[in-house]
Amino acid sequence: MRETTVVAGVSVAHDSATVDQIEAAGGPDEQTVVEGLLAAPGVEEAFALSTCNRAEAYVAGPDAAALDDALSGFAAPVPTGVVDRLDHEATIRHLMRVTSGLESLVLGEDQIIGQVRDAVGLAREVGGLDGALEAILTKALHVGERARTETAINEGTVSIGSAAVELAVEEATVAGESVLVVGAGDMGTLAARALADAGARRVFVANRTLSAAEHVAREVDAPAEAVPLSAVDRTLGRVEVVVTATDADDYLLNAADFANDDVALCVDLAQPRDVAPAAEATVELRDIDDLEAVTAQARERRAAEVREVETLIDAELGRLLEQ
Known about the structure:
With about 325 residues, this protein is α/β, with parallel strands linked by helices. It has helices spanning about 20-25, 30-40, 65-70, 90-100, 110-125, 130-150, 160-170, 185-195, 210-220, 230-235, 255-260, 290-300, 305-320; strands at about 5-15, 45-50, 55-60, 85, 180, 200-205, 225-230, 240-245, 265-270, 285. It has two domains: about 5-155 and about 305-320, Glutamyl-tRNA reductase, N-terminal domain (Beta Polymerase, domain 2, 2-Layer Sandwich); about 160-295, Rossmann fold (3-Layer(aba) Sandwich), CATH 3.40.50.720. A six-stranded parallel β-sheet has the order 7-6-5-8-9-10, with helices on one face. It has a four-stranded antiparallel β-sheet with strand order 2-3-1-4, sandwiched between helices. α4 crosses α13 (about 305-320) and α7 crosses α8 (about 185-195). The longest helix has 20 residues, at about 305-320.
């Protein structure tokens, strides 16, 4: 790492921001954020991370003040009270905590490793990483992998999808009922599996690409059926619980879609939202913000594991800062 290089970061995350504020902070997409930051004076490297519970941007260069200026526009639409601005050391520590799952809504969840790795690949493709920041991210990914192999941080509820199902079991009936998952990505797959494990009688999986829904349907340990996205409105009349987790830009469901059905609960995990907030008028609607109570219990149970990971991070951070 070049001695003259410093890094800085900005984070808007679930611990202080709502799902709508995270969406507003994140910009159009990670590539656009990285390219915009690279165009700022004094920025030599840039990286962006956007997930359902965080929007973050990082830069590297020779002058800390220039980096702060470059980041000043990120998260501009949201209140300053929910924006965490990070200096050099705090940025490195935060990235290690993120990859280790300590900053996740679901403590120790595994998806974040893949999300960071994908975002690193994208930043490399557009010329955003080739020095100090890239080395820090590589170290952070290594720390995240160590946290999962050397501690029990990822035992128990280890995904947002499974946390959503825990919430559904508490607030509605899953066992013996038919359920619908909208979205066949990683989160939708995890939710479908968790619903099957919770005793769902039948799992419907809807997706824009039917073959992807069919793949998820084959993965679950329960009778399952893939349906096209165009059939979601007809499927709502056959299910008790709905979980949505797509990457659609616009709302897929609104109040009218639930008006004539008996859906007891809809949990919207998407970022941006899949379900219009106005749907609360016709269905019990929950989103990622409502998962805090479920995940807080898991965090309390694993306080010892958290301390182990924090000790690991302290050691790795110390070694990196000494270089």
